[in-house]
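Course assignment 3, question 2. Fill in each field.
Student: A.L.
Task: Predict the tertiary structure for the chain below.
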Amino acid sequence: MSLTPEDVKKIAHLARLNLSESDIARYTPQLSSILQFIEQLNSADTSKIEPLAHPLDISQRLRPDAITEPDLRDKYQRIAPQVEAGLYLVPKVIEEA
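Answer field:
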């Protein structure tokens, strides 16, 4: 697929880019070559290839799901300025217009 300078102007407008005429002249062949490469990739036969989540066939090492630190929530809430129902209360910081 080959782009025209008008196509690049439309793309730049949609992307809200302000391109000069020299930029458009420079980007037209570059974007066209990118689209040609994508067409080349799309033409590859991938019907016999299974999708995969990772290129290496390894499993993730997982740590045991165990509590490693004591629950100090009550201690921290005792020294907090304001607490209600287990939540920290903070001053309102959003101003209404």
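Instructor remarks: The longest strand covers residues 83-84. Helices lie at 5-14, 21-42, 73-78.
Grade: pending
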